[in-house]
Amino acid sequence: ALAVVAIAAGGASAAGGVTARAARANRAGPPRLAVGARGVVANDLSTSHSVTVFQGMRPVATVPVAGPTPLDAVVTPDDRLALVTNPGAAGSVQAIDLAASPPRVEPPIRVSGNGFRAVAPDGRTAWDPNPSSTTITPLDLATTPPTPQAPFSVGFKPVSVAATPDGKDLWVVRYAAGAMRHVFVAGGRHDLGPIVKLGPDPLLVTLDDAATVAYVTFIEPRGGTSAVDLTTGAAAHVRMGSGYGPIAVDPADPSVVYFADQVGRTVIPVQVSGLSMRPGRPVAVPHGPAYGRSMPCAVAVGPAGNDLRVADGGSFVSGRRRPAKGTPCRSTA
Fold first, then answer.
1. Up-side HSE of residue 90: CA atoms within 13 Å toward CB?
2. Averaged over 47-69, what is the pLDDT?
3. What is the C-alpha separation between 305 and 331, in angstroms, rounded?
4. Angle at CA 268, nearest 5°, toward 262 and 271?
5. Measured in whole angstroms, how far is the alpha carbon of residue 306 from the centre of its chain?
6. Are 128 and 139 spatial neighbours (Cβ–Cβ below 8 Å)?
7. Strands (E), 87-178
8. Whole-number Å distance between alpha carbons of 106 and 101
9. Cα separation of 260 and 296, whole Å?
10. CB 140: neighbour CB atoms within 10 A?
11. C-alpha dist (Å) from residue 35 to 38, 75, 317, 323, 333
């Protein structure tokens, strides 16, 4: 299901400053979420092998994709395309033309299909990490379907990528190395920069709008989030809620980010200043009609900036949570 959490004046961290309601999305499995003027939810663990496209909070189309467990959805800044990861389809990515009516899915593109990618601010390039090797594959989004370019190596097991607002820098999380790699982008080249040590089991990376701080979330047993100064490499780590989850940055208010606590079934507003992170009061996420309890799998600030869109993946089999496949979820906006 997809839930919306309203952001009150002064930010969701203000006492009593949040409310929540739920909207039905799909009935099977933890979804993955991307939000633009249109929203896209990848129906992970669903038997439908599909993504759901939303206009606001209203589902307008369910689009079949090539394989099971669609893992991640990213929307280009112009809301023209959605890119969906298909780890269950021999490692592939599919583009969905959101301008078509109904939305049209392109043939699968054979790349890694298993990581969490970034899209350039101009919407012409995406970068797809290959966690099973050392490479990242650029995708030319100006072609239909997108065209893979020559991969470049960043070191073993890159799992997620974030791009700066000007598209000139990438920050790549390398899970096995417990580190983050800086990559300079210029004229079609990808030149390797410094490595920032993070500690064991980093997974997802999100940049603040000024591209001065990266928020890196970790899976268990470490869990929690590190704020990393992208100039000095200094970092501060805070364990929030009950463990791991993705981070959403509020472009309208740089003093707050939102942490989706998958284990604690809440979204936590976090006051930030430099590397300081101060978690606020958790906000319960309402579960959808098919679920016994919620599991906030992804979070993104809505396009109007006055609410959060939370993908609820709480799914149960015989009274027990269905085993998660793949890796924890990610949100982008």
1. 4
2. 73
3. 15
4. 145
5. 19
6. yes
7. 92-97, 104-105, 109-110, 118-119, 125-129, 135-140, 147-148, 152-153, 158-163, 169-174
8. 14
9. 6
10. 13
11. 6, 7, 29, 26, 5
Task: Identify the residue whose tokens are 């089991």.
Answer: 201
CA 244, distance to chain mean position in Å, is 13
Taking Cα atoms as reference points, which of 308, 235, 305 lies closest to residue 268? Answer: 308
Sign of CA dihedral 41, 110, 118, 257: positive
Q: Tell me the β-bridge partners of 53.
A: 40, 61
| pLDDT at position 226 over 60 | yes
Q: List the structure tokens of 240.
A: 């929030």
Helix, strand, coil percentages (3-state) for the chain, rounded to 5, are 0, 50, 50
pLDDT at 57 over 70: no
Distance CA 233, CA 3 (A): 36
80-126 per-position pLDDT tens digit: 888 888 766 567 888 999 888 888 989 888 886 577 889 999 999 99
**Among 121, 124, 92, CA closest to 106:** 92
Contact (CB, 8 A) for 312 and 286: yes
The structure's pTM equals 0.83
By C-alpha distance, which of 158, 102, 106 is closest to 127? 158
User: Which pLDDT value is given to residue 39?
Assistant: 63
* Residues sharing a CB contact under 8 Å with residue 64, sequence separation 6 or more, in sequence order: 48, 49, 50, 105
pLDDT tens readout for residues 243-277: 677 888 887 888 889 888 877 778 888 999 999 99
Where would I find the beta strands (DSSP E) of 101-244? 104-105, 109-110, 118-119, 125-129, 135-140, 147-148, 152-153, 158-163, 169-174, 179-186, 189-197, 202-207, 213-218, 225-229, 235-238
Q: Peptide bond preceding 269: is omega within 30 degrees of 0, i.e. cis?
A: no
DSSP β-ladder status, 331-332 and 31-35: parallel
